[in-house]
Amino acid sequence: MNTLFEYLVRLGDDSLILGHRLSEWCGHGPILEEDIAMTNIALDLVGQATSIFKYAGEVEDKGRNEDDIAFLRFDKDYKNALLVEQPNEDFGVTMMRQFLFDAFRKPLFEQLTKSSDKHLAAIAEKSLKETKYHLKHSAEWVIRLGDGTEESHGRVQDALNTLWRYTDELFFSNEVDADLRSKGIVFSSEELKATWSEMVKEVLAQATLSIPDNGWQHDGGRKGLHSEHLGYILAELQYMQRAYPGMEW
Amino acid sequence: MVNKERIWDLMEEVFDPEVPVLTIMDLGIVRDVVQIDDYWKISITPTYSGCPAMKTIEDDIIEKLGEYGIENVSVELVLSPAWTTDWLTESGKKKLKEYGIAPPVDEVDKSVLFADPPIVPCPRCDSKNTKMISQFGSTACKAHYQCQECLEPFDYFKCLK
Asked: In angstroms, rounded to a whole number, what is the distance separating the alpha carbons of residues A200 and A53?
């Protein structure tokens, strides 16, 4: 197995699928500024996915470009974490999902800027700057909603209760990671989890939200085993390329 | 005679499609110009990963050089070192302000989560009594502000370090 390719696909799929989810808010944001914010963040994420898939295509060396990888795989080939494919629901759920993800991606990109793989380090360096803005935005909303009205508090607490079960998977690690770690390409996921936990606890405390007692966790996304939601995302995402193969505009 | 200096000079004639007062040299996104055999390779770097202007800028560079009979041109996108607003030229910052967009001011590191938003003077009346409306504006590189004195809403070209 080409472990670097596999890892890049995970990284790129997280960006692509969450970027797609956020783009669903286009024209539906609760206020104009948030409509613009979410689509801006979606654009950053899809841009990151483009750089990552382009490089993945080079690493794989089978003649696939970034569009082939984004649009022409089947559901089991997608390796995004289950968290990012969860539905938008209300704004509170979307912001909570975003915060849990941003709090993971910022330290991840910080680690990857030190990767022995120079191309991956360059992508991380670029993406890190954007992710800092995303995290600031989502963390502030989680606090504002959590420490807001009874209604907003209740909704984001429900969001946290629903999404918490998908968070462990962000730190999924198997032989792919072990191989890349031995080459200095990626780094410890335990360390990542510690940094993430600290950030999450701090923000949730300020937001007066409590981490659910039930610690049961899902996994599957990193192995290509997805929730029912991914298929619908792909049906929309891939429609044009499936209906009109090779079309361009 | 086409030499490297000539190509660099011509880059001053290619404008940013989203902020058309700025040239790509003002933005600091042209990273390198090299001649390889019989063609010129120009390296540019994106401001943001998803910046939709990059493809247009690439096409505009090829078109501009074509106008001067320079045909063998390839434009390459490089990601490292990552672009920073420190690369905006002083004249670029001035042009931004004249255009009504507040140029970037030095900000604390965004890894400090709950820092106050930076004080951005109004590009029209220079008042520092302004308010951030949204961190995200009409394009990825801008935030949205409003002046509390002259009440003018304005874009802020946000700091990226």
From this structure: 29
Nearest-Cα residue of chain A relative to residue B158 = A133
Task: For residue B46, give the chain A residue with the closest CA.
Answer: A126
- Report phi then psi at B49, rounded to 5: -50, -40
Provide Rg for chain A, Cα atoms.
Answer: 18
Domains of chain B: 4-83 (3.30.300.130), 101-157 (no CATH)
For residue B12, what are the CA distances in angstroms to A7, A205, B25, B32, B58?
40, 51, 6, 14, 14
| Residue A128, token pair as written in the block | 């890190």
Residue spans of the domains in chain A: they are: 3-243
Amino acid sitting at position B57: I
The answer to whether A43 contacts B80, with C-beta atoms less than 8 Å apart, is no
CATH number for the segment(s) A3-243: 1.20.1260.10
The answer, for B114 touching chain A at a CB cutoff of 8 Å, is yes
> Which residue stretches of chain A have pLDDT < 70?
none
Q: What is the pLDDT of residues B13-70, one digit of tens each?
A: 999 998 999 999 999 999 999 999 989 999 999 988 888 889 999 999 999 999 999 9
Bridge partners, residue B130, by sequence:
B147
